[in-house]
Amino acid sequence: MKLFCYTLLFTVFLSANACKEKYDLPETVENKDYLVVEGFIDGGNDSTFISLSRTVTPQDTTSIKTEQGAIVSIEGQNGENFLLSEIKPGLYAAAPLLLNPSGQYGLAITTHNGKAYQSDYVDVKKTPAIDSVSWTREPDGVQVYINTHDAENNTRYYNWQYRETWEFYSGLYSNWEWDPVREIVMSRNNPVLIYRCWQSYTSTNIIIGSSAKLRDDIIYQYPITFIADDSWKLQTRYSILVKQRALSKGAYDYLENMKKNSEQLGSIFDPQPSSSNGNIHCINDPKEVVLGYVYSSTMVERRIFITRSEVGGWKYRMLCEEFSIKNHPDSLRLAFGGSGLIPTSEEGMGPVIERYKAGSRQCVDCTLRGTNVKPDFW
Q1: Spatial separation of the C-alpha atoms in residues 160 and 301, rounded to whole Å
Q2: Which residues have C-beta within 8 Å of that of residue 274, sequence separation ≥ 6?
Q3: Rounded to whole angstroms, how far apart are CA atoms 299 and 134?
């Protein structure tokens, strides 16, 4: 059975590319073109994103079947209406809505074939501040935690997502480059452009927590992510931005079911969370299954940095082999014009360059694994 990683309400809203795979219906379920609604109504100063797609049958060769050309809007019980624009196939967005914090809002959808869908109206949950994002050095890596609380005991249910960014360096430093037109080795103008880079990753797994069974609304040292000590994420410097949202109990229960199902390989359809507690309904056919749960909340965030020197004993090493190339037109042409090597440094006595050292592109050019554009927050 092919798996469906439908990470509801998460990464599409940072990168517009959620972790999705082909959603195959099991043989015991009638093959239907079910609507999948992913998104939340932002009640603060962030944009709202809603992703619409369709389930696919086992015989369908389409990996993601987006629902295009729909009319999507946020409706308030007081008559407010905010229309979302389709910014890419199946992805609908609106600028910050500045909703009434004491109001209730729902999602209205009319698909291109005229079918209408409506979510339940939901409260705008106010999210408490993050107390801290902390970490501990473990024998095999670094564990990152979240700490938060609500002094008024009104939240109880939480959702987190994060975006990691890390600085890394190439395994070899290159002072030289190959000119394919003149077929010569020439001095590189700015070697650091292919030596120092950054890479980022946005979480796709469901991370939720609850203090409902505790007397006080406190979340302490809740694990967010783990960095193994052979990971390149801490080659030099690492940053994580954690975003926190308050959940209603219904949204929490829905996500908890999804999390359990997605972790049970081969049994994701048992039980089916959308059929038990989803809050989106087809107006034309109340019996139609709709996959998704819409909620609304504000969002808070906290960023921290971790350097390699802070954790100590980090095991990551980029092992690269360096080759020696004779400074002869034929040898240089073969090495740098045909074999994909990049010159790094020179060898010789005095001003005469007898040989060039060289490495593979993967070891020399960091832009193959990231970007050399420094993030604004770095």
Answers
A1: 9
A2: 254, 289, 290, 291, 292, 293
A3: 19
Q: Which residue has the tokens 């469906």?
A: 4
| Token pair in block for residue 355 | 């040989």
The DSSP 8-state label assigned to residue 173 in this structure reads -
CA distance 338 to 332: 9
Query: What is the distance between the alpha carbons of residues 84 and 71, in angstroms, rounded to a whole number?
Result: 8
Closest CA to 127 of 202, 223, 12, 45: 45
Per-residue model confidence (pLDDT) at position 3: 32
- With residues binned 3-state (H G I as helix, E B as strand, rest as coil), the percentages for the chain, rounded to 5, are 15, 40, 45
Report in angstroms the alpha-carbon separations of 215 from 146, 316, 353: 19, 43, 74
User: Which of 271, 237, 188 has the alpha carbon at shortest distance from 378?
Assistant: 237
Host H or E run for residue 178? strand 176-179
Separation CA 133–CA 224 (nearest Å): 9
| Interior angle at CA 288, CA 25 and CA 208, nearest 5 | 65
Average pLDDT of the chain? 88
Question: What confidence score (pLDDT) does residue 8 get?
Answer: 32
The full set of domain ranges for the chain reads 12-127+246-300
Structure tokens at 11: 């990464």
Q: Are 356 and 347 in contact (CB under 8 A)?
A: yes
Backbone φ and ψ for 127, nearest 5 degrees, come out as -90, 130
What are 2-22's pLDDT values in tens digits? 333 333 333 333 333 434 444
- CA-CA distance, 275 to 271, in Å (whole number)? 8
Helices then strands, each counted (H, E), the chain: 6, 26
